[in-house]
Design a protein that fits this description.
This protein has about 400 residues and is mainly alpha-helical. It has 2 domains: about 140 residues, 2-Layer Sandwich (PX Domain), CATH 3.30.1520; about 260 residues, Arfaptin homology (AH) domain/BAR domain (Substrate Binding Domain Of Dnak, Chain:A, Domain 2), CATH 1.20.1270. It is about 75% helix and about 5% strand.
Length: about 400
Amino acid sequence: MLEICVSDPEKHGTSNVNAYVDYKISTRTDLARFTQHEFFVRRRFRDFQWLREQLCLAYPGAIVPPLPQVDSYLQDDRFSTAFIERRQAGLELFLRRVGGHPALQAAQELQTFLEAKMWELQTAKNASSASAASTSSSWITALFDGTDASLKKIGVRQERPEEERITKLRAFATEYETAVTAAAAAHHANVSTLADAASDLNLLGPAVNLLSQSETELSLPFTHMASSLDAVRLLLERHAQHEGVAGLSAVLSFHAGIAGSLKAVLANRDRALDVFERAQGLVEASKAEVAAFSEVQHSQENEQGQGARPSTLYGSVMSRLDWMMDDPKKGARLEQKARDATAHLDESTQAWEAISSGIHDEVGAFQHTQHVDLGRSLREHAQRQIEFEAAQQEHWRQLLL
């Protein structure tokens, strides 16, 4: 069990430039790897961003849930109550999905995020930044980027026909992202229309109330109408706020982000395949270098033993590979490079196989969740619309009494 709740947003600072909001992250769990069964920490949005980045790096084959988008279709700033509530709902959905994912819930980064003290979290952030920097200049990078002769032998990966399921998956990811993004934008526009209608009624109600003071004979009807308009305004504001925070709008926005995560997994698959095939080529090139060196060395030994000058073959090979035979460590270095290339091939093979073998399970779980989410959300949306329309009609009926 791993239950996570996001609550109690708190603003820190007074300047909009330096101010920020953090949230209380409460966790209940029976997992043995956590030090307590119930605990909480406070985290700000940039901490969530760090967590998601680390999950994407550590699990390139997983569809990592998206964080809520900063942009809002409602006209409010990032410190308004409406904006904070929308972000809070999106952050909780993100954590609950991560906690429900069989691989992501076991991530050390998630445990650190959920229970570490602030200084411990900052230490983990610093370590991850240092690790990323060292990886970019690691021996693997040097192996690829520093050996021109070997890379020339690898060449460019030839296009290979994809399996039918991957081809269909690419098309689905693109089409689904387009469709759900358009639906989210349309629903956001509808929520904005509701908010605008409430704003208009906020002006109309007082205007009608002024009429009640100037038209003595119609004073009571106008006062009653102003009251009804104000009640409808409040109803519209609550409905727009709910739809923008936790209604269909939030689910559509979340799934637009999920579609983007699916496309990212497909891109990770392509990169893993490219690295795997480059590693294969590098192994072949490094082995060829070792074999050529051994052949040249053996030829030189034979010719020197016979008291003859180096052969033309020897000279051409030496010229082509630009080797210096008086370097006694050349052979050892070439053999070590071949071992490093083989180790990298083993590593890239595991990465490629992990993504390739798990991608269909990820998509299957995503589609199941998608169907459940959208089905439930549509039913809830329809029910809310019925209740909203009924309440609105009741206010207008009261005006006729």
